Amino acid sequence: MLDHLGERPGVGAAAAVTLVILLIAYLARLNQLLLRTPDEIKKLASTRWKRELLRETYRRLEQHPIETQDYVSRIPPKLERRYIVTGGSGLVGGYIILQLLERGQPPESIRIVDFRAPNRADMLQGPATRIDFVQTDVSSADATDGAFNKEWHPSVSHLPLTVFHTAAVIVPSDRSKLVSGFCEAVNVRGTQNVLDAARRAGADVLVSTTSASISIRPVELWVPPWKLHSKTSPRDYWQVLDEKDFFEPLRSHGEFYANYPASKAAAERIVCAANSKGLRTGCIRPANGVYGNPTDNTVGGALAKAVLPTWTSHIVQSFAHGANVAIAHLDFEAILAAPASASAPQAGRPFVITDPNPPTRYQDLYFLVQTLAITRFRTVALQPIMMVLLSYPIEWYTLALARFPFLRKALPELTGEVKHLQPGIFSICTHLVASNEVASRPVSSGGLGYTGVMSTLEGMTQEVVEWNRDHEGAVLGERKVYQTSVSLADEIARAAAKIESVAR
Questions:
Q1: What is the pTM (predicted TM-score) of this model?
Q2: Which of 277, 291, 413, 445 pairs as cysteine with 441 (C-beta 3.0–4.6 A)?
Q3: DSSP letter string over 253-282?
Q4: Cα distance between residue 493 and residue 495, in whole Å
Q5: If you ran DSSP here, which 8-state letter would residue 178 be given?
Q6: How many structural domains is the chain composed of?
Q7: For 464-500, how does the pLDDT look when each residue is reduced to its tens digit (9 = 90+)?
Q8: Domain holding 465: CATH number?
Q9: Which residue range is the domain that position 226 belongs to?
Q10: Which long-range contacts (CB under 8 A, 24 or more apart) does 123-131 make?
């Protein structure tokens, strides 16, 4: 009897060791699955970018960059209208401004309504500097009304009004409704404020920028152990981004990967539901992710770092250059400008937009930056399962501070990129292939007649050309600091928090 009892600790230890081994084996196998590129995606991905192709493209674009004047024939003709562009200082909004000017709209007929003044180099020269700017927080109904109702130059005050609503905040990984207030305030209530202000200002066309991320479903990161033997990827580890979800009931909050796409989906429904003869509306969904200026998160985010830790080199995604997204907005406006278009098949619905080429691997983007940038750059490979495991404590910590505000007196809030390493981020770090097949159909067939003006290879290379020009003669290792859409969202959130604190 005593001998039997003495054996139990050994049995328990052996069982514990076995469980640990099984857990390690499970995590290792899951890590392998997360590092896979499914055969379906490999068939769709573009040909790998070779060093000579990159250098040849760089030389061509360094000598003859693709500027708005180079594709003016592709921009829809000038309309005798006024324009309000919310978020006009940003990536998509800025390209809309430049294309409007290129096709002949006088600066007096355009107004930028944004949280910040333009700071892009291509908007700090020429006619863009004469455009009226009204600093506005669209989450405030009064501020939005004030910006829309500001008096226009007499030469254009009689013209009909188009609103391009591109203003939004991007918070990439927060998924709990407990911390959804910021996205709700700007992306949902802000959109409603813009829509209401547009009506009161007499606008008859409104095209809003939403996001192809709306259609992304949360990835099932934890594959059941009995499925690990197969080559099956985690559920939804690769997805096609299209508009089919729009024609189904709006999904519940938990069926979106984060608060951001949930808020953009709600905003999209608001805009599309408002379509009428008096105000024709529609939405453009840019593919994940949008780039085209060193201020972006995709290319600019890589250029900003000498060392980039990443677990996404093998990931294949569709990208959308800001110029391509902007021209799709103008394509849409050209259709909606006709009063009878309220009943057209294009009105009151979204269209996905992407670059005119197959999806691209992040590894190609990193190779492009490493090959062409004059600043140093290299990647450090991380194991995705380790980042997944780390993301949960970060989320728990963040939610604890939100749920129990008194903890903020003793514990610091997370800042910088680490705050975004939460489980939701992994649903946009997966294989995402966008389809703009519908938008590319002729107008007579219910499409926008959309074709992109810049390929992903050209767009990303040109951004490096601009980066190198900005960093000529810089001290080794010194990098110019650009404000990205994610860092801007952080700034707006801090400003809102201060106002709330004072109000208390």
A1: 0.92
A2: 445
A3: GGGSSSHHHHHHHHHHHHHHHT--SSSEEE
A4: 5
A5: G
A6: 1
A7: 999 999 998 776 667 777 766 666 556 555 555 554 4
A8: 3.40.50.720
A9: 39-503
A10: 123/89, 123/94, 123/97, 123/98, 126/101, 127/101, 128/97, 128/98, 128/101, 131/88, 131/97, 131/107
